Structure formats: structure tokens, C-alpha cells
Amino acid sequence: MRLDAIDRRILAALQRDGRLTNADLADAVGLSPSPCLRRVRLLEKAGVIAGYHAALDRKAIGLGLTIFVGIKVERHHDEEARAFREAVAALDEVVSCHLVSGEADFLLQVVVADLAAYERFLIGTLLKLPGVSDIRSNFAIQTVKDGAPLPLDHLSEAAARRA
Predict the structure, then answer these.
(1) From CA 43, how far away is CA 31, in angstroms rounded?
(2) Together in a domain, 77 and 21
(3) Is 137 in a helix, a strand, or coil?
(4) Which of 65, 74, 132, 141 is the most exposed place for a label (fewest CB within 10 A)?
């Protein structure tokens, strides 16, 4: 799907406020409501808009500790890698997981209530994941930036066409 300037304005507005009414969104991007709704539906159908959600304050709901966990796995055989990925995907405490290069094979972002909760999660769950050979935990002291919108203004027309 090719993303033009109007599509990028729609996406930027929805990243700022996913609860905008179609009329307000249309007004914000300079369209009438019907074409705006058609564009939003096309962006949803193409998977550019993956969904809508509420952003929660982690501390306010009792999840005050964020840990970035580097995990090395013993082997990268297909079956073992699949088992590891499936196990991680099922863990509620893991809010993101990335296959990375460098010292670790995977980088997980884990959110728990406190250090005691992380200790239980580490010993009772992470150390028991299939193929794990090493775990390194880095604790977030302060969050400077989190959940920022994607930088749509920096997309070139060529990059937008590839999307």
C-alpha cells in the first residue's frame, strides 16, 4: 500500500489520539468524513493500523518495575527456537521480545510489581524456558521516553510506497 501525505496525517493523528471521532479526524487532516473513513478502513485492512488500545500508567496500576532481560539460548535449532518463542509469547510479564544481535540472542522487556515479583518470575519462569543458557537483567531506573508515536514525518515518499 502506498502511503501519501494524507495517509500519514491520518496515522499521526490516530497515534496522538486513537479515540478521535471520524468527523474530528477528517477535520484534523483536511478531508470530508466519508473519504476519511474510507482511508482509515483501507489502512486497517492493509494492516498499517494494527489496532487501537488504551495506554496505561504502569506505576498507577502497580507495575512499577521494568527490566530489560538479555537471554542467550544454547542452540538455534528450529524446534527449540519455536518452543522458546512460543513460551515467551505466552508470558504476560513480557511486554516485548526481540531477536537481537550482540551479546544476547533475545531482548525481553519485562514488567512486574517489584523486585520480589521479578525474583519469582526469574527463578520460577525465565530460568525454566527451553534452551536458555544465560540471562542478564538490566533494571530501568527512570523512563525518559516510552510509547512514543512512530516518526511518520520522516518517511520519504519512497519508504511510504514500500509500506
Answers:
(1) 15
(2) no
(3) strand
(4) 141
